[in-house]
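Dear Dr. V.,

Thank you for agreeing to look over these. As mentioned in my earlier message, I'm a first-year student in the group and I'm still getting used to reading structure tokens, so any feedback on how I've presented them would be very welcome. I ran two proteins. I've put each sequence directly above its structure. The first is here:
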Amino acid sequence: MATSRARGAPAAPRRTLTPQPAYVLQRHDWSESSLIVELFTRGLGRVVTVARGAKKPTSSYRPLLLPFQPVTVLLGAPPKAAEAGDADRELLPLRSAEWAGGQPLVRGAALFSAFYLNELLLKGLARQDAHPALFDAYAAALAALASLAGPARDEAAVLRAFELALLRETGLLPDLSVATLTAEPLAEDGSYALDATHGLVPAAQGPSGARWTALEAALSLAGGPERFDALQAACTGVAGALRKPLQGLLHYHLGHTPMRTREVLQGVQKLQVP
């Protein structure tokens, strides 16, 4: 016969379920009716969840669990160690999902850039490691991509701004206001290069010290859309020069496997050439 809890003894703590702002990064089939969904949440970071019945025609999840649209999710506790293996313990049951709204959707050619952001998050973040400021930067980047229109749209500054935010939030970006090896302030009119192993160093060619300092000033602002707007503005005009060093830094830390979204985009561009 089970023994009752002693009078006055504290009750076992219960896990409080808190709604989380989230975006879908990718999804996979799990069964004939269910999906495994990778989410980027503001409070829990990158998580993997089981959306049971999400593939059924009548499921309310079908129009919600799609990339690039904001949702609010309620996640359950992971299975107990005695009931699941190590891999299964990372699966958080999806209790509910609702459309958060308030943001235009990314469309057209800008979708390639949006999928590139998702791939960066999948490769660059450990699971269940929260980065609220990076979540805000991701939401701002999607909004910026959705607002771009016309043949003259410039997505490069948006991408460079998000790469900088990702590198800074994961601790992989040095202080951009000083030379890394000497810790001396940058000369405004000097040229500097960002090296994966030596940090920011003087160079014959590269963005000026004033440019790097402006980028650091934008990165140092409090999180939110204003911070990303300032970072995007700081990248405008120098995005081309930043592309190679930032991607070199990303490849150094995240691995040299080519980004699939870039390979697909390059293939599409080749098909469009007469």
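The second protein is here, in the same arrangement:
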Amino acid sequence: MSGHDPAGAILFLSRAVQNCPVSRSDDLTRALYYLGIALRRVGYSNSAIRSWVTSHKMKKRKHTRALLDRFCNEYGMARQDCAVQDDWQAFYSIQLTRYLRGFKKRTLSDRSERSMIADIIRDAWRQLQDSGELEGRTAEEKYEIFQNTKIDFPLFYFSRLRDPVVRVNFSEGRKIKPGDSCPCGSGLQYCCCCGRNPGEDEFAIGLF
């Protein structure tokens, strides 16, 4: 797609994905693969990861796996410039998901709500950083800490906030860890497949 308009390509490829029969799995996985490339080129990196994961789950391909290994971090999100930014992105995603699910919303209502919630989550993040609890931890350990960090959003109905669903491997009788192979059989780690965290560009359009 070099030299072409990626925004136009997204429109074309999105229609191709929507209209392609599931029976034509080769065409569908190919369209999802190129859709991910186009999305990344216009700055929707997490939506690109989502597209590549979906493509890889349908049909395992080396070039799709190579893109995921290159651009996906240990939280199943678009890789940032440094580990601290990766951690913050994951923490923000987990807390924002909890907030939105608690009120059965798909996205934030307006800019003022977005700003307020971001400030609250950022304050909790700074407190967590200052505590030193994250020092020397693996991404998997940090993920557990992020999940266990509860924020009391200052709304009179915050008690409705629900915890995320606990995923369990029933054959082994234990909770699925982020670094485990995904039970769906994709060959990817759970945190990079069915258990991946959505990014900000996905929240913006209600994809989580």
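From my reading of the second output: The radius of gyration is 18 Å. The chain has two domains: 6-71, 83-204. Does that match how you would interpret it?

Kind regards,
E.
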